[in-house]
Amino acid sequence: MTKAEIIDRVYDEVGGLSKKEAAELVESFFDIMKEELAQGRLVKLSGYGNFIVRDKERRMGLNPRTKQPHPIKARRVVRFKYSQILKSILNPPEKANSKQE
Q1: What is the pLDDT of residue 100?
Q2: Which one of 14, 22, 51, 57 counts the least CB within 10 Å of its CB?
Q3: Is the dihedral of CA 3, 8, 9, 13 positive or negative?
């Protein structure tokens, strides 16, 4: 799903918004998330999951093409940990009947 598709869904599902307002709402949501993550803060979305900024240290890597070692710079990465609610949606429990088959 693309951002444009998300804007279309917000426009369709939230009444009373123009398409431009729906786009501004979605853009504002993502801007807030980016600002918080850029400051190293946790973004916790109840029922969805947590976005966490982690610092990775400099390390030696291996160029897969040349097989030569090369340094990988220290950097910040965003990790996502999904909630138990999202996990249960992605992996619904199997029904009792399907276990017998």
Answers
A1: 53
A2: 57
A3: positive
